[in-house]
Amino acid sequence: MKKLLSIFAALCLIALSIVACSKQDEKNNNDSSDNAITTDFLVGNWQPIEFEIDGLKISNNPSYQKQWNCLKQTVYTFTKTQLSIAASQFDVDNDRCVRNIGAFTYSINKNKLILVDTEGRTVVDIAKEGDYLSTITKDNNGKTQKYTFRKVANNGGNNNSNNDNNNNNTAETATAQIIVSGVTDGVKVWVAETPFRGSVFLLESATVVNGKASIDVSGYIGKKLYFIVRKDNEYLSTEVAKTITEGDNAITLIAVAKSYTAKIKVLSNGTPVNNKKVYATTNVYFLGIQALLIMSKGNAEQIPANNIKAAVNTNAEGIAVFENLKPEASNLNGYTFFVVTSLEPYYQKVERTMDGTAQEATITLSDSQTQERKVPVTFYVKDANNKAVKDAKVTVGTEVGTTNHSGLVDIQAPVNTQINYTVKTPCSQTKTGSYTTNPHITNMVMVTLTSAENCNSKGTLTLKNTSSNPYTVKVGNRTFVMEGKSTETLEVALETYTVSWKQNSGYMFYPTEGSTTAEFSSNRKSITISFP
Questions:
Q1: Can you tell me whether residue 302 is helix, strand or coil?
Q2: Using CA atoms, how far apart are residues 114 and 26, in angstroms rounded to an integer?
Q3: What's the chain's average pLDDT?
Q4: Which residue of 154, 165, 174, 474 has the fewest C-beta atoms within 10 A of its own C-beta?
């Protein structure tokens, strides 16, 4: 979804699902004084009544009725210096109408509307057509876009400017006098005609100074308005409803600071577990982390660091204290706190919603789950000529593994423990040794045999990527990535292999892919395949 004010979107939200909008250059405007736009003319609520592209009207075009019925609900509210936008935007991807709000400072200079917010300054050409407000721009394709807006009364009806002029001398005035206690530094008061649940139409806003704010609400006498304190894109108070009367309207709001602290206690048989690492992540990220822990049998080092929001060790009371776990978005406030264990499912977790209130939870472990986890120990077996030995069996206690074509095999072993291992090749060569595991490094044991006897006749497969783009290559059950203009040489058994490749990047619509067969034999031990 496009940002509310991105590239002139403030006055062309209606076209978001139809055509791109363009920012206009600042240039001289020669409109007559009769058509000059003033802040008095702008003050009030405006809604779009038409949008045209090269004269084609969208409001009555059957092809765009769904979008138009959504977008025509947009309301622009002008005060003397502020523009508030309650935008209805059509989300084409999800086929739905969504609402956004924004508030900006504005000024008028020769029929140019100058909008300023934290992201910069945008200049828009505008024109007065009787009681209507219009904009005419050129899009990126050179097509003329015209937007027409009508001033509406606070209740959504037509605003009769003549009646307004006749009543100027007798107009009632009303002011909201707001007192804010609690958190007052850098906060604002927002005003809306509806409760602050989901998307709302922002009517007015004011910065709180010394615990006070004053807002002109003369245009809402007799209406019920809702007031709330807001800071850093979140509400700090409960909303207060007030039916506006003439004169001063007193509103009291209590702003409470948000807390994004979580205290997670870890127990085993009712006893606090000291120095146990507790991880915090979002519920969405944990779905992937859960799969990694199961596949790696509890190897926390496999968890991507950017998937973890924080990791804290428990203290003597078994408590891990997390600070400032503020969600990146209000719909991503579901958090999972977990510890890694040595037994299936290799974790224990609790879930909490970080909604601005301090959270507490307890994770209970069994005795076996508190045992120190196992880590993978990689054995690399090679012969006296430094060639990898395939199908060598490595035994550590009750764990047995077989080396792959690269002479590698992983064996799970307890951390901080001296393990004894035995390596036996297909030619019955045997070698023993010992190794002490370490939880903080990659554990690798290199086993060099004293013989260079070739237990299995091998072939050589040479792969050449002639493209400048990377490709994913699969040879048998092996999959790897080859960078552009690279060569890979594999030692393989004298068997028949299917070799396939698929372009990873650098294509316009579809990746290049293909496959072939490499058939090795005692008479054909070397094959070269170039692709794509």
A1: helix
A2: 10
A3: 83
A4: 165
